Amino acid sequence: MAGGGNAIRGSRIGSGPMGEAERGEAAPRQTVTYHCSQAHRAEITFSTEAAVPESWDCPKCGRPASLDSDNPPPAQRNEPYKTHLAYVKERRSDAEAADILDEAIALLRSRRKSGDVIF
């Protein structure tokens, strides 16, 4: 008769090899502190061989953080969403837009006179 359904009998959840002998030695590390404009401190651990970046995103607020505690970087400005028309207006002046519109209207009128079907 089979007992009640524990397949992992005799071990704890999370148990595994104990000590560095089974896993190998840990790489040498350094802890670097980053500061954001909201006075948050983020302590990030890097390998001593790794290049430490000048800036890091703050894990609490998402703003940029730097190594300099006295002069943290300012928050980035978000650009508002631009519509297709806004991009067109950046590329074309009102006079150019009027010329293009006149050409398109003239083309449509010439097609209408010749009997072409436009879908």
Please characterize this protein's 3D structure.
The chain is α+β, with helices and mostly antiparallel strands and 119 residues long. The chain has helices at 20-23, 84-91, 94-114; strands spanning 29-36, 41-47, 55-57, 64-66. Strands 2-1-4-3 form a four-stranded antiparallel β-sheet, with no helix packed on it. Strand 1 (29-36) and strand 2 (41-47) form a beta hairpin. The N and C termini lie far apart (78 Å).
Gist?
This protein is α+β, with helices and mostly antiparallel strands and 119 residues long.
Spatial order of strands in the largest sheet: 2-1-4-3
Reading the helices and strands in chain order gives HEEEEHH
Poorly predicted runs of 5 or more residues: none
Distance from N terminus to C terminus (CA atoms, Å) equals: 78 Å
Number of strands: 4
Shape: elongated
Count of DSSP H/I helices: 3
Mean pLDDT: 83
The class by helix and strand makeup works out as alpha+beta
Largest beta-sheet details: 4 strands, antiparallel
Q: Helical amount among residues, as a percent range?
A: 25-40%
Q: Approximately what portion of the residues adopt beta-strand conformation?
A: 15-25%
Which value, in Å, is the CA radius of gyration?
32 Å
Question: What keywords describe this structure?
Answer:
119 residues, alpha+beta, four-stranded antiparallel sheet, elongated
List the helices and strands and how they pair.
Blueprint: H1 20-23, E1 29-36, E2 41-47, E3 55-57, E4 64-66, H2 84-91, H3 94-114
Antiparallel strand pairs: 1-2, 1-4, 3-4
